[in-house]
Prior knowledge:
Strand content: under 5%
Low-confidence stretches: none
Distance between the termini: 17 Å
Amino acid sequence: MILGIIRGKCPHCNKGDIFSSKGSSILFRMPEMGKRCKNCNYKFEVEPGFFFGAMFVSYALACAEMIACFVLTWAILKIPIAYIFLCVVSMALLSSAFNFRLSRTIWMYLFYKKR
């Protein structure tokens, strides 16, 4: 299951890709998600607004990443606070496309029921 989440595979068949494009934070492109699995025809968005809860997962991921970045730069590297702020903000911006994909995939796997 964890491997399927990391690779972004369909929760039903574990073969089809959930996202048709990976996106890029640097180019300000969010990943594009397919409506259905190309392998097993599983519908990803179970109901309208299904992925609203994935925003909370994305928020938790971003907080964990920012705290880890803060601890790394402040406690280990001991750089000035202004640079720490710039590091944390740039890390949050660069990981946004990754967090979008991962949070939607986690949310889908959390509520997957074998039909």
